[in-house]
Amino acid sequence: MFRNRELLLGITFVLLITGASAVVYGMKPAGGGIIIFIDGIIYGAGFYLFFRRYYRRLQLLSSFLRKSQYGLLPLETDDQHEGEFAILKSEIFKLLTRLHSQTELLEKEKQYLADTISDISHQLKTPMTSMNVMIDLLKDPKLPEENRIVFIRTLHSQLARMEWLLSAMLTMSKLDAGTLILKKEKVCTGQMLNRALEHLLISMELREQSVIREGEEDVSYAGDAYWSSEALSNILKNCMEHTPNKGTIRINTSQNPIYTSIRIINEGSGISSEDLPHIFERFYRGQHTSPDSVGIGLALANKLIRLQNGSIEVSSDYGKSATFLIKFYHYNI
Fold first, then answer.
1. DSSP H helices in the chain
2. Average pLDDT rounded to a whole number, residues 315-326
3. In whole angstroms, how far apart are CA 40 and each of 23, 36, 129, 144, 322?
4. Average pLDDT rounded to a whole number, residues 2-6
5. Beta strands 210-215 and 248-255: pairing type?
6. Cβ atoms 314, 271 nearer than 8 A
7. Residues 6 or more apart from 311 whose CB is under 8 A from it?
8. Any residues with CB less than 8 A from the CB of 9 and at least 6 apart, and which?
9. Candidates 3.40.50.720, 1.10.287.130, 1.10.3720.10, 1.20.210.10; CATH matching 102-177
10. CA 91, 97, 101 angle in degrees (round to 5)?
């Protein structure tokens, strides 16, 4: 109540006029009628000025709200007076500021969703077009058996690629929505790397690539074993694709009181300085990207690692090798 400036002014005004009238009436009792008449004029003028100011502030508040509807929200309110109106305007300003921020965020998310759908559509359209062509060719009874086998193998490969893409996008959407719950348990780094390498060994064997494990095998950290292996598998897959035939991938694990580290070094073309800042961006494809690459694996790995109180860094000796350094911290960072 006492913060209402208008009410305090009104009460003060009435008390002053009443007090002054009482003093005058005490001095000249015969002029009571005139005093009442003058009081009426003063009260009328006072209430007129009060309500004029009252409605003027209402008009300013209405104008403030109209401007805010068109995004013309001022950086701060210009009403520095005390009272209920000033408090009301301040609260409305806070509410509108929050609403504008949420609107901008929704617009960004809407654009991001549109871009993501466009990227997914593009990634699916290319293999589907190729698959339709091969299916039409397989219908030809005169197609040589060797070509038929090649086309069927390619169809299987394209289907596996599309399945991986959809699975990765589903995981990314869960991460973005915050619905993917990661465990926090003791993860043995050696066992986790074995799982990450498991489905890549055949492809590496066909390329005559070798994996050299170095460092401490019994190190551990607190995280989610399954999703850690998924993240490392994506990184190792990227390294495999960029390592030449008969090349080598080195994995070194170590631990100190602050973090557990996994260093992965692959021989090959390395990463150019132009691509280096962008390799963890979704759907980014660099200069030496494999034709089968989607550009989502490293983005997914980066997000999964960071959600487990980890970090990932990459460096490159362009033309020779690339190094991924993954750290899982023992304390919150």
1. 5-27, 32-69, 84-138, 145-177, 189-198, 201-206, 225-241, 297-306
2. 88
3. 16, 6, 90, 111, 91
4. 57
5. parallel
6. yes
7. 305, 326, 327, 329, 333
8. 50
9. 1.10.287.130
10. 150
CATH code at 185-329: 3.30.565.10
Burial level of 142, CB count in 10 A (0-12/13-18/19+)? exposed
Confidence of residue 78 (pLDDT cuts 50, 70, 90): low
Dist CA 222 CA 316 (whole Å): 29
CA dist 112 to 100, 166, 169, 294, 296, Å?
18, 18, 14, 18, 15
Copy the structure tokens of residue 123: 């990634």
Q: Which residues contact residue 247 at a Cβ distance below 8 angstroms, ignoring those fewer than 6 apart? A: 207, 209, 210, 266, 267, 268
Tens digits of residue pLDDT in 228-251? 999 999 999 888 888 889 999 999
For residue 282, pLDDT beyond 60:
yes
146-151 long-range contacts (CB < 8 A, ≥24 apart) are: none
Q: Looking at 59-73, 157-171, 216-230, which range is the least confident one?
A: 59-73
Q: What is the identity of the amino acid at 222?
A: A
